[in-house]
Amino acid sequence: MSGPGLTNAALGTAGLAGFLALGEVVPRLGLVSEDYFPPTSRIARALFTELGDGAFWTALGDTLTGWALGLAIALGAGLVVGVLVSVVPYLREVTASTIEFLRPIPSVALIPLAVLLYGSELRSVLLLVVYAAFWQILIQVLYGVQDVDPVAEETARSYGLGTVARIRHVLWPSALPYVMTGVRLAAAVALVLAVTAELVIGAPGLGARIAVAQSSQAVPDMYALVVVTGLLGLLINVGARTVERRALAWHQSVRGEVVA
User: Fold this and answer.
1) Measured between alpha carbons, how far is 15 from 21 in angstroms, rounded to an integer?
2) N or C: which end of the chain has fewer CB within 10 A?
3) Angstrom distances, CA of residue 19 to CA of 8, 22, 23, 24, 235
4) Which residue, 6, 202, 18, 200, is CA-closest to 110?
5) What is the arithmetic mean of pLDDT over 47-68?
6) Residue 48: is its pLDDT beyond 80?
7) CA neighbours within 13 Å on the CB side: how many for 148?
8) Whole-prediction pTM
């Protein structure tokens, strides 16, 4: 790493260090009560304690399980439905109003339904995660298919390519940048909904552990778990960006990020 990349990394590190220092100083000076906002050092000690607790790793595994399964289901369903709606004549027009009606419904509004159907089981988490992540992927697939060059489509038809061949060689390369954007957005949304479901419903995971820490007045532990969820989101975003760059190494949007 050199040049602008190194500068950005240094600035990011400096910003994080400043934020942690501010979190240490503000409660020490009495600007906020340590009972509600403990210093960074206390949160760090609580975090190390959590890392040594086997129940923490079990909760982390539960959260990652709900996130990964929900994202995988949403990805498969979003791709299949998006391609079918796009390539089947008139299906886009028939489903447009239904999609526009269902898409804005917040996933958290389905929490009572999830509890009614599945209680505090993993399936409740999956219901919310899949519903939230599905729309992120579906909409991007629809946009990606719309962006296919009509000249390329007609050329493929003139050469006698069938539907499957046109999807593979024309539609998919054009839609892939949109799909990867949808996956990146869906991955972040899926984590948010997984933790939210655990926090509200009480399903096993980091969210439920945060709720227990809050109710038992273990404030440093609560903040430590919140930090874990933040780091988890950061890792997921970095991982998604890395996959996106590799999958789209041939695309102009990624080649333009390469600094000589």
Assistant:
1) 10
2) C
3) 16, 5, 6, 9, 19
4) 200
5) 93
6) yes
7) 23
8) 0.85
